[in-house]
Please model this.
Amino acid sequence: MSSLALFNSSGSMPFLALIAFFLLIGPVLFMGIATMWSNIKQKVSDELYARAIEIVDYLDTPEIEKTFTEFDDKLTAKVDTSISNFKSTFIAEISRIYAEIDGKLTAEAEKIKARDGDFTKEAQKILSMVNNMITRLDNVEEACRNDFASVNASIEALQNGLIQCYTLNRRIQPVKTDQQSVSNHSEASSRSSSSSGPITFKGISLTIWTQFKEVFDKIKAEKRFNLKEMCLHVAMEIRELGGNIKKVTVQEIYERNIKKKDGYISTLDDIGLWLDSKLSVNNNASSSNNNAE
Model:
């Protein structure tokens, strides 16, 4: 028991001594470490400050200024070159687009111009056709006028022929002894004398028109035609006799709407031919009736 206590007392002594040692040296050691850290920190700070001063002094040298100037010049030149290249590329692209658009617009303008030229040619062609038609109509009108250039002389011949025909037809009729025959002879003589009498109007146009209207109205009433139907009937019968006349012309003569310009010899000949045929038929019928009586 005594030996164990001795061991315990002898074993705890170094531990206590170690603790006492650390307690005595710890503050000193801490102070040393703190002082060392402060010195290192100050030294590093001084070293950094010296380096910074050195760098600043180095930057203030002409060599650095030259370097910065060269760098600035190179950077400026690079930027200018890039801007110039971009400008050239942009201008070239714009020029290409403008040329493409201008080419398309020019092509469209040429197409429109070509179409306008075609339209102009067609319009000129139509105008030329119209002018040709007008010229042909003028020529036809002039030819129709020229067809009656010698109407005055032919009218006189036609007048004489009609008078002779009327006189001859009246002379060959037999003389009747009864009152009716006397009356018919008196009426025929009256018509003959009126036919062979002097013409109170200049020319024969009115005489022919009067005779034409009498026969026209008589046949029109007998056949119960209207004006247009009768004009067509006269025109067709004239064509059967070898003449050539239109229904409108017959109506114009009947209504006396034809203006007097150089005369109408062919129309009057056709009308005279038709009148001769009608008068011949009437005279033959009258002669047959007289012979039958």
